[in-house]
Amino acid sequence: MKADSIRLPSQTPTAARLRGFASAALRLAARALPSQCALCGNLSQRVLCDGCDAQYWNEPRLRCATCALPMAASAIRRERENARLHCGACLESPPAFNDTLALADYRAPLDTLAVELKFRALLAAGEAFARNLRAVFEDSDLPRPDLIVPVPLSHTRLVARGYNQAWAIARPLARMMSVRADASIVTRVRHTSAQSRLDQETRRRNVASAFAVSGDVRGKHVGVVDDVMTSGATLDALARTLKLAGARRVSNFVALRTPKD
After folding, report:
1. Has residue 9 got a pLDDT over 60?
2. What is 61-257's CATH topology?
């Protein structure tokens, strides 16, 4: 059974039909009743109106191929035109992950969308992030992952929030890419302080040994999904754990990237 499927204790034909009717009615209502764009407030049947959708995704930034940090054109030196770009930090001390794809910088107005997803359960934002991450992936030269996993929350934080915002992106992204998704293969075994309150070195210590792998990732290319990448310490710790478990390659798919720590 797929990791993201749900097993029902009993399922009569009548109950199944009723659930089908209810689901169809909700989809029809969503199409028929206009809502508001999460960014500009204009009427829209999707989380973003057509204008915001066209304007804010995929900003033209040169990014490090490893960590997706924005790079100034003046700082780039390439031996050949098709060479992958890498920032000085990744060249000097490579992280455990191999690649990072990011949609845009973590700044207004898209940071509002990330906050709405993370703290106000605007799960439709996860679908929007996934749709655009899939497009960025298709334009990249990265190989397709064998497996997609979200950055896990600790049990304490998951219970308090009620959902994992990274899974709200990872699940539709995996479906769009025709890749298996698994929200249980990686767990956070240690509750940690919020990374946003810590400096870079403390962030690294904070997430050291925070994760565990419970499934078979040997020889696999694992895609790791998160909503926001700041210092990269969490993703580095998770990639290190995956590689110690035998993962061949780890690629990050992040909605937004903080330009600087």
Report:
1. no
2. Rossmann fold (3.40.50)
